[in-house]
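User: Structure please.
Assistant: Input sequence and predicted structure:
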Amino acid sequence: MDFMFALLPWITALHVISVIAWMAALLYLPRLYVYHAQVAPGSETSETFKVMERRLLKAIGTPAMIAALIFGLILLGQPGILEQGWVHAKLLLLLGMFLIHGLYAKWRKDFEADRNTRTHTFYRWMNEVPTILMIAIVLLAVAKPF
């Protein structure tokens, strides 16, 4: 147990680093979709966006999400943490973050197959979802209000 306690700051740091990388992807990917939705399918610009979107999601976003999940699960092993109400609220909001990640991945596949039917305005609005979730999650994790 002392060994685990000694590792706690390192695990927390790795969790935060992973979350930052994941959030970078979740904040930038829909921004790419905004621009991608404004170009003709099959155009050279569209093909460039496809590469950027795929690399962002597969090389940064998804690996960072998995790392954040692993380190987060380790942190949930702390004695008594699951008895705190804020953790349950955070986990519920985290489900929303996983959902938006999955939607972004689905939409990337739609763009990849030239099947996007959504407007750039739609993606502008969807860009706000992870921001709102992130703010709520950080407030819960830092303030621990209940």
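Residues 81 and 87 are 7 Å apart (CA to CA).
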